[in-house]
Amino acid sequence: MSANQSPAGQQPTTTYDSAFMKACRREPVPHTPVWFMRQAGRSLPEYHKAREGVPMLESCTRPELVAEITLQPVRRHGVDAAVYFSDIVVPLKAIGIDLDIKPGVGPVVEKPIRTRADLARLRDLTPDDVSYVTEAIGLLTAELGSTPLIGFAGAPFTLASYLIEGGPSRTYENAKAIMYGDPELWADLLDRLADITAAFLKVQIEAGASAVQLFDSWAGALAPADYRRSVLPASAKVLKAVEGYGVPRIHFGVGTGELLQLMGEAGADVVGVDYRVALDEAARRVGPGKALQGNLDPAVLFAPTAAVEAKTREVLESAKDLEGHIFNLGHGVMPATDPDALTRLAEYVHTQTAR
Hints:
Elements: H1 19-24, H2 45-50, H3 56-59, H4 63-77, E1 82-83, H5 90-94, E2 99-102, E3 106-109, H6 131-144, E4 149-154, H7 156-165, H8 173-181, H9 183-207, E5 211-216, H10 224-230, H11 232-241, E6 249-253, H12 260-265, E7 270-272, H13 279-286, E8 291-293, H14 305-318, E9 325-326, H15 339-353
Parallel strand pairs: 1-4, 4-5, 5-6, 6-7, 7-8, 8-9
Antiparallel strand pairs: 2-3
Helix pairs in contact: 4-6, 6-9, 7-9, 8-9, 9-11, 14-15
């Protein structure tokens, strides 16, 4: 089933005819829909107040707190979709991997996974492992009404990179050493992560998420041939596993201009584009049959309003002939961004694209 169909045996949900969902299905929209990656979080003072004294991973397990943080940018910015507040390592933590998110560093894994014996530590994820996700999404969908909720998960390659490196990396030497040197172990690791990721997305969809996004944050570190051979099969498995739900599937990575066609081939309905490639060129690379999401440089938001609007017009002009377009940043909102700049940007896109 494609995202152009409502779920089998069900009537269209309250979010089905929203601008965001229409754009995902490449249908006419009343205006270009807007949401921002990392819109729920560090740029908002209300976020810091809500999370005061609560460690990051713990905050992801408190349903009422998750709901509040997820809703904050919807209330403030008037965006066309909410994105579930969580972190890509949450399912790994839920199955017992000893990790933490350290301020100023990111996810840190106590015992990296680097041998075949280590694979046994990656057990299947069950809905009971993340019951707080089901509860939080129930709270959210009741509050959001016709505003879609986007669920998300980290893609197998990015999760594998964290697990093997033990934390963030700029070179991925340990991960690539296994990918090149022990391709069977690499394939088994990514396949296991694909199952965990698919299970995590299914929980979110079954709880009420209207769409899902697969973040392959670090896929831009790969050459196309390596991506096709060593990464695409696992990402395709994840996206195929949730196809039957009929919800739009978004696929996004950073620095993936050379991979856009392959990321579309993996099975996405919408391909996210970072700020390095203009959307008309991205459409040529991806090919027909896909909506695109993006792609204002997040750093532009630190410039005066007139400059932000000028760069926004460039993005919209580049997107004018797309089959479907969701306006977003070319990566996540930076922590020091002025929230009012995001509010003005959402309103500006809506005004400029009103039909």
